[in-house]
Amino acid sequence: MLYFVIGLPGRFAEWCDAVVAQLARRAQGAAAVLAADTLPDLAASAIRTGTSHGVVACRRPDGRLRDALAERGRRFIIALDDPRHAVADLGGEAAQVADAIPVVASSCAAIASCDRGAGAGIVRAAEAAADPVAAANAIAGHLELAAEPAQIAGIVGALAEQGLGIDFAGAAARWEAVAPDPRAWAEGALAGYVNYFDSGTLTPLSWARELFFLGDRPAERAAWIIDITGRARCLLQGPGIMVAAGAWLMTIKLLFSREATEHEFLVELIADRPLAATTVKPEREGGLEVNFPLALEAAANHPLTIRLSSRRAAFDGACAMDVTLLTPQG
After folding, report:
1. Which has the minimum average pLDDT: 106-115, 275-284, 306-315?
2. pTM exceeds cut of 0.90
3. Which residues contact 238 (CB under 8 A, 6 or more apart)?
4. Using CA atoms, how far apart are residues 25 and 34, in angstroms rounded to an integer?
5. Euclidean distance between CA atoms 79 and 235, whole angstroms
6. What is the 3-state secondary structure (H, E, C) of the chain?
7. How would DSSP label each residue in 211-246?
8. How far apart are CA 123 and CA 18, in angstroms?
9. 163-210 residue pLDDT tens
10. Distances (CA, A) of 26 to 4, 18, 151, 254
11. Cα–Cα distance between 241 and 110 in angstroms, integer?
12. pLDDT of 103-134, one tens digit each?
């Protein structure tokens, strides 16, 4: 028997994985923890470990896996933590935060697309931290893994001794210790999901320029001015973030120098395939907006990448990403 735990990458989801694994071991005698976000990944993990019993730790479940759980009426756990705490769990330095944001935001998008029907048992980090035994008991009850209260208390205590307790206050402190600039990048990319997990309403998202990379130097962040001098080429690309299913308006805000107004630029939006493209020619120095309406299917599981390219060689000029906004449409 396989038990599914869907959660953000971070310590709370790991705690839920461990609780379910211990409960499953008591019921079945053996239970591996398999990391899998797709059905092919799950099959490969089961073959590699040689087991069909255990916990499936999903951090970004794709549409086919989500649909399979719903169609078969399977029960699963959704471990809801504050996405900002998940970012802090992955590292507090600016570079670590910039790397963590696409990972956590994409996980948020997949979880937001999950069916919240009878099969989903939602466990929240703040409530679980206040009473971890009650949270573990709720997990056991939802997954129909019967255990005596003393056994559940013993599981929670043993995990705490191993360093797998729920430290919600510590996670909040780690988040507050993040420097203001990277904290602002994360707030923009995650605030809409924080609101959704709290209230059920998805609000706008924003992607800071620090989440993008130079087109011809993909290891270097496009944090400010991009020199367009030289041959026609990709100038900027990123951020490689998955977005929740539904209708969106994407507004890409770019900045151009006076010299760049002599040139045309190609703006593309790409997932697993090209989604949209347009050619722009700045009329004046300063800002320029490109709008792309999007309709993202629930089965989609592909990060979005924006690409800005020059169309011909340039002897002077500069451009920059200002910010990218995503506004839910209904």
Report:
1. 106-115
2. yes
3. 207, 211, 212, 213, 222, 305, 306
4. 14
5. 39
6. CEEEEEECCCHHHHHHHHHHHHHHHHHHCCCEEEECCCHHHHHHHHHHHCCCCEEEEECCCCHHHHHHHHHCCCCEEEEECCHHHHHHHCCCCHHHHHHHHHHHHHHHHHHHCCCCCCCEEEEEHHHHHHCHHHHHHHHHHHCCCCCCHHHHHHHHHHHHHCCCCCCHHHHHHHHHCCCHHHHHHHHHHHHHHHHHHHHCCCCCEEEEHHHCEECCCCCCECCCCEECCECCCEEEEEEEECCCCEEEEEEEEEEECCHHHHCCEEEEEECCCEEEEEEECCCCCEEEEEEEEEEECCCCCCCEEEEEEECCCECCCEEEEEEEEEEECC
7. G-EESS-TTSB--S-EE--BSS-EEEEEEEE---SE
8. 14
9. 888 988 889 999 999 999 999 999 999 999 999 999 889 999 999 999
10. 17, 13, 9, 57
11. 11
12. 999 999 999 888 677 789 999 999 999 999 99
Report residue 166: phi and psi, to 5°. -100, 110
Confidence band, pLDDT 50/70/90 cuts, at residue 67: confident
Q: Which domains does the chain have, with CATH numbers?
A: 2-176 (3.40.50), 204-328 (2.60.120.260)
> Any residues with CB less than 8 A from the CB of 219 and at least 6 apart, and which?
213
Task: Give the C-alpha separation, 73 to 115, whole Å.
Answer: 11
C-beta separation of 195 from 202 below 8 A: yes
Nearest partner of 212 among 293, 320, 309, judged by Cα: 320
Cis preceding-peptide flag for 239 (omega within 30 of 0): yes
DSSP single-letter state for residue 72: T
